[in-house]
Amino acid sequence: DARVTQTPRHKVTEMGQEVTMRCQPILGHNTVFWYRQTMMQGLELLAYFRNRAPLDDSGMPKDRFSAEMPDATLATLKIQPSEPRDSAVYFCASGLIGTVNTEAFFGQGTRLTVV
Amino acid sequence: QKEVEQDPGPLSVPEGAIVSLNCTYSNSAFQYFMWYRQYSRKGPELLMYTYSSGNKEDGRFTAQVDKSSKYISLFIRDSQPSDSATYLCAMRVLNDYKLSFGAGTTVTVRA
Fold first, then answer.
1. Which of A22, A49, B27, B76 sits between 20 and 30 A of B20, alpha carbons compared?
2. B97, B103, B104: residue with CB nearest A95
């Protein structure tokens, strides 16, 4: 059962703490996306990678957010220091981009609450 | 003004009714159009995928794209309580795989 796996599913942290969210993309997929979902803004793209190389991170606040792909089976999104306005659901998605009719498959999300 | 506009609803219909969902967009470069379904506290799942203008049917679901009007629609026939979810339209340009999403429309199908 191929699926995108995200950990943790829920995270509550205090303002100023570092938060790391992890994503295991579907095996064989060459593109990984990080999205953030809030009631006010909906789904927003933060960053995406193709073959582990960052292609676009223009949606990500650079001063506190960083995204990496240490290897093909792991993508990470870090926030340091975290702020209450970072509270949201963070989704990772992966896809085999470049083939016909293939788009992003989403994970279950990490629900982050910064208090 | 957002690139993609979608009526957030909510929409409540009786079982068996036709559900009609719509999005408008401003970027004429959008070529690929998708509908995602998102159940509460779950990730979005791809429902329909259409390239350029035209119609596409998959079971009870029909997606329509009218690029001249910058307008896309999703119709759900014979709606079921299990169709109760938030439906998000999404679109992208050729050769760039980042998606622009609508705000999502929450649909409730009453048994």
1. B27
2. B97
Do B42 and A108 lie within an 8 Å CB cutoff? yes
Burial of B81 (0-12, 13-18, 19+ CB in 10 A): exposed
Quick one: tokens of B35? 């509908």
Residue B76 has pLDDT above 60, yes or no: yes
B26 is written with which tokens? 């401003």
Residues of chain A with pLDDT under 50: none
pLDDT in tens, A30-44: 899 999 999 888 999
Task: Select from B39, B34, B109 the least CA-distant residue to B76.
Answer: B109
Please give the Cα distance from A33 to A52 (Å, whole number): 11
> What's the rounded Cα separation, in Å, for the pair B82 and B19?
13
Handedness of CA B83, B89, B93, B96 (dihedral sign): negative
CA nearest A90: which of A26, A25, A20?
Answer: A20
Determine the Cα–Cα distance for residues A103 and B87; give it in Å rounded to an integer.
16
- The three-point CA angle A50-B39-A57 to 5° equals 25
